[in-house]
Design a protein that fits this description.
Length: 229
């Protein structure tokens, strides 16, 4: 195995693909998932399966609830997840599924673990093309966080670590992400993308995430292996 890498793993399609790409580059994989009070906690069970499937050395699940802060339909039972929006509508404005400071919180936890592991590399499967317009999915944000990490860690200040945040999906369409994942042997039947899954765990097929996922598979000329409805 090569150098260690901490990979943020949600249980979704993008993070699974990013993890497979890290493996392809020869990194030893340390998967990190956050139990942040999300409605779709089924994704954490998927993350466990993906971590095993892709050969993670360790998979850490951190309970860190953002539900008590609120501000997102992904964590509030009273606020419904938007459904039925067209592909054209998605990404035009930041939707209610935005979780305040989520990626900043997640990357901070990943940074802490990376420093303990003495891992200079972190992977996150954010995407800035086929996505819902979240501000913390942009490359300029990642560069700013990376600069902060060098100032905020003992290892960085002492010059022992040069932290790198890898965003291998940042400029890819969903169809390209899927094609890349298939080529790397990702089993997409193990992934979960739905923001508001049905009681039995199936995907709703109507939320923004489901719509973008289905569009990606259609454009890739492949059948989505998960269950809808």
């Amino acid at each position: 195995m090569g150098k260690k890498a901490v990979v943020l793993l949600s249980g979704g399609m993008d993070s699974a693909t990013a993890m497979a790409m890290a493996r392809e580059e020869g990194f030893e994989l340390y998967a990190l998932s956050i139990m942040y009070g999300q409605k779709n906690e089924v994704e954490l069970e998927k993350a466990k399966k993906i971590a095993k499937h892709l050969g993670a050395t360790e998979h850490l699940i951190v309970p860190l609830s953002l539900k008590i802060i609120g501000g997102s339909s992904l964590t509030s039972m009273e606020s419904p997840v938007p459904k039925g929006r067209s592909i054209e509508e998605i990404g035009k404005r930041i939707p209610s599924t935005y979780v305040p400071a989520r990626n900043t919180v997640f990357l901070s936890v990943a940074l802490a673990w990376a420093e303990v592991l003495e891992a200079e590399d972190m992977f996150i499967g954010i995407n800035a093309l086929d996505y819902s317009g979240y501000p913390d999915c942009r490359l300029e944000y990642i560069k700013a966080f990376e600069a902060m990490a060098h100032l905020a860690t003992k290892a960085g200040v002492e010059g022992r670590m040069q932290l790198r945040i890898h965003t291998p999906l940042i400029g890819l369409r969903k169809a390209e992400i899927i094609a890349k994942g298939v080529a790397l042997g990702v089993d997409y039947s193990l992934t979960h993308s739905c923001y508001d899954p049905l009681p039995h765990g199936g995907a709703c097929g109507e939320c923004d995430s489901c719509k973008l996922r289905l569009k990606g598979f259609q454009e890739a000329g492949l059948r989505d292996p998960i269950t809808y409805g």
